[in-house]
């Protein structure tokens, strides 16, 4: 079952399309890498999925009760949080579920067994279990350790950490919430090799869908199971590993270059004929060649850039 189905997404900047017609779906275990040049809209697409930036069109269809975690490299250094509190804040809905269960248990212990109370208790219990159950705090601590933090760091204020450490803290917060969809923006920034290896292992076993943006090609090769390329406002979906996508793209660009070259040669040959015979005895043939040039121009393929 799909955690998210995105259909015909459109994003505009100052009235001009950044991307249009972007469609994809992700299921649990999928790790979708967003590819494309800088400025293509990869990070914007991530933020549009959680409503931080508004889409101009399209539809997002979510799995019922889906929980989303975002690693965005912007922890609130001056918010007064300790590292532990910040990591746990990624699962604030689970903390609220625990409080709600305690309130309902107290009400039931006092004799409230109304159908509405029992219904709310069952729904809240299911919501907590969906997020990992009562062990979510232990998971948050384990994630922080996996990303290189020591126990002595857990109760330090965020303001005492470096920028790189705060980036790791943001990643820990996203993972600790046990989301159904995990959105990662440059997750390997400021990670040492041991932490990258831990993250690769974590993502390979996590019971969630993952959408990520990264420039670390070795990391992408290790974790990505599919690729969504954004380029010139359009998207292309490729179901396969990162290196296979790169090989397929290189072959596609080579074919495009050859086809563009052949079209250019055909046009040049036809134009030479027209220039020589347009007003002579072969003027009729020259007119036919002009129509042939127009037909080629109508479907002309641009040579790949670079």
Report what the structure shows.
The protein is of the alpha/beta class. The chain folds into 2 domains: about 1-240, Rossmann fold (3-Layer(aba) Sandwich), CATH 3.40.50; about 250-300. Helix content is about 45%, strand content about 20%. It is built from 10 helices and 9 strands. The protein has helices at about 40-50, 85-90, 90-110, 115-130, 135-145, 165-175, 195-205, 215-225, 240-275, 285-300; strands at about 1-15, 15-25, 30-35, 55-60, 70, 180-185, 210-215, 225-230, 235-240. The strands form 2 sheets. It has a 6-stranded mixed beta sheet. Strand 1 and strand 2 form a beta hairpin. Helix 3 (about 90-110) runs antiparallel to helix 4, helix 5 (about 135-145) runs antiparallel to helix 6 (about 165-175) and helix 9 (about 240-275) runs antiparallel to helix 10. It is elongated. It starts with a strand and ends in an 8-residue tail after the last helix. The mean pLDDT is about 85.
List the helices and strands and how they pair.
Layout lengths: L1 E12 L2 E12 L3 E5 L6 H8 L7 E6 L5 E4 L11 H6 L3 H18 L5 H16 L5 H11 L16 H14 L4 E5 L7 H13 L3 E5 L3 H7 L2 E6 L2 E5 L3 H36 L5 H16 L8
Parallel strand pairs: 3-7, 3-8, 5-6, 6-7
Antiparallel strand pairs: 1-2, 1-4, 8-9
Helix pairs in contact: 3-4, 5-6, 9-10
Order of helices and strands: EEEHEEHHHHHEHEHEEHH
Percent of residues in beta strands: 15-25%
Number of domains: 2
**Number of distinct helices:** 10
What spatial form do the alpha-carbon principal axes imply?
elongated
Number of strands: 9
> Helix- and strand-based class?
alpha/beta
So what's the oligomer here?
single chain
CATH topology of the largest domain: Rossmann fold
Low-confidence blocks of residues: none
Mean pLDDT: 86
From the coordinates shown, what is the CATH architecture of the largest domain?
3-Layer(aba) Sandwich
| CATH evolutionary superfamily of the largest domain | P-loop containing nucleotide triphosphate hydrolases
- Broad CATH class of the largest domain: Alpha Beta
Largest sheet: 6 strands, mixed
Q: How are the strands ordered across the major sheet?
A: 5-6-7-3-8-9
Radius of gyration: 27 Å
Distance between the termini: 40 Å
The portion of residues assigned to helices is 40-55%
